[in-house]
Amino acid sequence: MGENDTERNLLRSLINASEKAANIARICRSNEQLLSLLVQEKSGTEANARFEHDFKTLADVLIQETIKHDVGNLFPELLESICGEESPNFTNTLGESVTISVGETLTNTIQCLSTVLNGNEEAAEALANEVHRDIFFEDERLGDIPALPNDLAYEELGIWIDPIDATAEYISGDSMFTNFPGITSTGLDCVTVLIGVYNRLTGIPIIGVISQPFQQKIIDNEYRSLVFWGVALPDLQVNNCKFDARIRNPLGIFSSSENPDVLQCFLNLGYEIAFSAGAGHKALKVITNEVEIYTLSKAGTFRWDTCAPQAILRSIGGDIYNYSESVKQQKPIALSYSPANDNEENWKCNKGGLIAIRDSNNIEQFIVALANV
């Protein structure tokens, strides 16, 4: 299938956008001096209350606006419904406030980025060239990209973007490994790009794309992406997440800030415990069948963190559930992205926590056990 044949394939467009995002992330990360210029601490309503410090980078904002630009050009009916984690407003080290945007021309984008970079036109041009470059990502691990149903109502869809999940890991770059093969607790391996599509009328996630920009190191500062995708429509359940069952003790993955009583509950169930950074990364470990379950018993993730992995999990036969409501009502209640909640304070936050699981048939046993915490 050629690029012209996929021009209006939303899944293919999101995969291409995720690879462009990965390229931008790698360019920014490859130069420590450039990275140090780009880091800006979040404040007020932008900051994640779970962390003492939260950061955004030019890479975050530029990736988000690039995805909006590229997908919006191909799907103009979606443009007003593409939302991301970051504010497009950025302040450079000279104190100048700039609204990051992708210009109509390469020159327009260079001018915008040059202002953010204190007049560093060489760096601005390198980033702008990547923003405006045509990308058609090919990787045998993608599998066959399906055609989407002709009757898919794009005007009813919304998109949540997390341009760089695990920003602190992206900035530090330091890696630490757990006692479990393949499970990294911190570092670039925890960094993901998350793009999730949901139906705005039903609140149900239907398409997810997750990219790991730093999954495979080729040589110093050169990496190859690994991209996972899933489609969870009533008549189309397909993904590239086929993994053989692993013979091992049951394993759950958690945030290091998780309630000790919740951890003890899983230990009592015979589970081993792994800790790792990045909500997207932890959910991905469920998708790849490296862990059975990812639980967060408190607020701390947002719609942009969960929309993409939830869509992929639904395509496999799993889901992401609202922890508090499911335990309280003793029945599975999936996270919803319905606009009916938009008037609530902090509506972007998954305030009830989450339970991510690969096989929804197993959810009730966890709900019962967690009721005693």
What does this structure look like?
The protein is of the alpha+beta class and 373 residues long. It has eleven helices and 17 strands. The strands form five sheets. It has a six-stranded mixed sheet with strand order 3-6-9-10-11-12, with helices on both faces. The chain has a five-stranded mixed sheet with strand order 14-13-15-17-16, with helices on both faces. Strands 1-2 form a two-stranded antiparallel sheet. The longest helix is centred in the N-terminal third of the chain and has 20 residues, at 10-29. The radius of gyration is 20 Å and the shape is globular. The termini are far apart. The model is unreliable at 1-6 and 47-55 (pLDDT under 50).
